[in-house]
């Protein structure tokens, strides 16, 4: 991978440790500081010259116009100059970044983000942090001091355009790492193949069920995003665990195929942010609104890794087990022919009803059958 790619990978890990990174283009150097783990003393050092960079989804929650956030292709960010926001302690900064209440006066101060600031937001999302960052444009003595710290190896300098493109950096570059036979309760002849993305942060597993020479010409396929709470612990807040096990059973009954277990917890926002979103849902928000309060879109997942894994397995035609039209569109955009869609449901319960209804009504998931069946049963009981 090019040197700039290595720098992006290193920057992701520095940011996850709370270490600032410098983003540079031809004219500008910007210091970016992740909000997570920020100490009050560090805020005091940065506040006079700093801006808070947020997504257009977050700007809409604050009460601003999200269309103003379309500042650059791929990453849509806005800048809030902190010097204009009045007295600001760490608690208020966190309310600005991911609090549930609007802040229309602060939102009115929003300005289009620079290339470097767009890169900052992209890196936060890639690092699975809250998509908000403190940024300081470095000039004069501050830039010289930053360059000295970069030269000493204390801070990392990254090309701003490379940071913006960090979501594309893994395309076509998955590494097949290891595999083993793993007999499953519903599919005894199964094999797990692990693939790793180049930044080392995400690993995906292809669960190969049965023997390839016995598969149908259009291979039964499930794209399953990892869900620790549902898959492992049987959480009632979603139907993920039941969908996972039903998919394995269905693929086995269809003569075998593949389940891709993708490291995309919480529709791509990561486990920490998913738990934050759950807390917001306990306060009355649905799953879509909770993600947007945190600065995320309706669905942050990408399926480039799935396309690459299918390529490595020499699969071009599939029967897709899904209720999500976006998965069909993403595979087809990657050159995979989706011959047929098979519905895949878990059970509806009092804890996941609102979640599934929001997915159907606001995200276009095809769940009418399971939701309508529950409604019909309720009516029959009256």
UniProtKB/TrEMBL annotation:
GO terms for molecular function: GTP binding; GTP cyclohydrolase II activity; zinc ion binding. Pathway: Cofactor biosynthesis; riboflavin biosynthesis; 5-amino-6-(D-ribitylamino)uracil from GTP: step 1/4. Keywords: GTP-binding, Hydrolase, Metal-binding, Nucleotide-binding, Riboflavin biosynthesis, Zinc. GO terms for biological process: riboflavin biosynthetic process. InterPro entries: GTP_cyclohydro_II, RibA, RibA-like_sf. GTP binds at residues 222-226, 243, 265-267, 287, 322, 327. Pfam families: GTP_cyclohydro2. It catalyses: GTP + 4 H2O = 2,5-diamino-6-hydroxy-4-(5-phosphoribosylamino)-pyrimidine + formate + 2 phosphate + 3 H(+). Zn(2+) binds at residues 227, 238, 240. Its cofactor is Zn(2+). Binds 1 zinc ion per subunit. It comes from the Bacteria. The active site is at residues 299, 301. Residues 176-342 form the GTP cyclohydrolase II domain. GO terms for cellular component: cytosol. Catalyzes the conversion of GTP to 2,5-diamino-6-ribosylamino-4(3H)-pyrimidinone 5'-phosphate (DARP), formate and pyrophosphate. Belongs to the GTP cyclohydrolase II family. HAMAP family: RibA. This is GTP cyclohydrolase-2.
């Amino acid at each position: 991978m090019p040197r700039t790619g290595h720098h992006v990978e290193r920057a992701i890990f520095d940011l996850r440790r709370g270490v600032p990174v410098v983003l540079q283009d031809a004219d500008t150097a910007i210091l970016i500081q992740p909000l997570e783990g920020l100490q009050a003393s560090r805020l005091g050092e940065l506040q006079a010259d700093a801006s808070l960079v947020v997504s257009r989804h977050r700007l809409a929650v604050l009460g601003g116009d999200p269309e103003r956030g379309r500042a650059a292709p791929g990453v849509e960010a806005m800048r809030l100059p902190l010097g204009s926001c009045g007295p600001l302690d760490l608690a208020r900064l966190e309310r600005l970044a991911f609090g549930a209440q609007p802040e229309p006066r602060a939102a009115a101060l929003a300005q289009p983000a620079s290339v470097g600031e767009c890169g900052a937001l992209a890196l936060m999302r890639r690092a699975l942090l809250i998509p908000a960052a403190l940024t300081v444009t470095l000039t004069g003595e501050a830039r010289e001091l930053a360059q000295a710290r970069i030269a000493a190896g204390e801070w990392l300098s990254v090309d701003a355009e490379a940071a913006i493109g960090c979501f594309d950096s893994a395309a076509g570059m998955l590494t097949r790492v290891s595999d083993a036979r793993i007999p499953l309760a519903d599919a005894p002849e199964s094999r797990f193949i692990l693939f790793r993305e180049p930044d080392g942060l995400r690993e995906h597993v292809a669960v190969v069920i049965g023997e390839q020479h016995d598969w149908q010409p259009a291979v039964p396929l499930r794209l399953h995003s990892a869900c620790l709470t549902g898959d492992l612990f049987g959480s009632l807040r979603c139907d993920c665990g039941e969908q996972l096990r039903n998919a394995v059973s269905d693929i086995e009954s269809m003569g075998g195929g593949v389940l891709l277990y993708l490291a995309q917890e919480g529709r791509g926002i990561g486990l920490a942010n998913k738990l934050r979103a759950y807390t917001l849902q306990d306060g009355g928000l649905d799953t879509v609104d909770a993600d947007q309060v945190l600065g995320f879109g309706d669905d942050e997942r990408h399926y480039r890794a799935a396309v690459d894994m299918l390529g490595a397995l020499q699969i071009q035609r599939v029967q897709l087990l899904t209720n999500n039209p976006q998965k069909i569109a993403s595979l087809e955009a990657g050159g995979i022919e989706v011959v047929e869609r098979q519905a895949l449901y878990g059970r509806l319960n009092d804890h996941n009803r609102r979640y599934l209804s929001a997915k159907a009504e606001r995200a276009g998931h095809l769940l009418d059958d399971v939701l309508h069946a529950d409604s019909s049963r309720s009516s029959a009981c009256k």
